[in-house]
Amino acid sequence: MLRREVWVDETGKVTRYNLAYIHHGICGVDNGRVVGYDNAHGFHHRHVMGQVEPIEFLSYEDIEERFELDYLAMRE
């Protein structure tokens, strides 16, 4: 399952996001999140197979591109 949640303010700026590839058969931790990106908890970070690491935020578009590349790599 792919989950894309994006919150946008009245000016069109992305204020919050949560992108995730969920597959309980591949990942039994982190609610099945194989890979994901979000900015919850006050910082931008990446989830990979139960591990969380901070990431540098350049733009939301950059995050979407990174997520898609990770998702495609994990699917193979």
Description:
This is Transcriptional regulator. Pfam families: TumE. InterPro entries: TumE-like. It comes from Ramlibacter alkalitolerans. The chain is of the alpha+beta class and 76 residues long. It has one domain (2-75). Helices cover 21% and strands 39% of the residues. It contains one helix and five strands, in the order βββββα. The protein has one helix at 60-75; strands at residues 2-8, 14-22, 33-38, 45-48, 51-54. A five-stranded antiparallel beta sheet has the order 1-2-3-4-5, with helices on one face. The chain is globular, with a radius of gyration of 12 Å. It starts with a strand and ends with a helix.
The chain-level mean pLDDT equals 96
How far the N terminus sits from the C terminus, by CA atoms, comes to 15 Å
Assign an overall shape.
Answer: globular
Number of domains: 1
Helix-residue proportion: 10-25%
Q: What is the number of E strands? A: 5
Radius of gyration: 12 Å
* Biggest sheet, spatial arrangement of strands: 1-2-3-4-5
User: For this entry, what is the oligomeric state of its chains?
Assistant: single chain
InterPro entries: TumE-like (IPR045397)
Protein name: Transcriptional regulator
Pfam family, one: TumE
Which features characterize this protein?
alpha+beta, single chain, globular, five-stranded antiparallel β-sheet, 76 residues
Layout of SSEs?
Blueprint (H helix, E strand, L loop, with lengths): L1 E7 L5 E9 L10 E6 L6 E4 L2 E4 L5 H16 L1
Antiparallel strand pairs: 1-2, 2-3, 3-4, 4-5
At a glance:
With 76 residues, this protein is an alpha+beta fold. It has 1 helix and 5 strands; from the N terminus they run βββββα. It has a 5-stranded antiparallel beta sheet with strand order 1-2-3-4-5, covered by helices on one side.
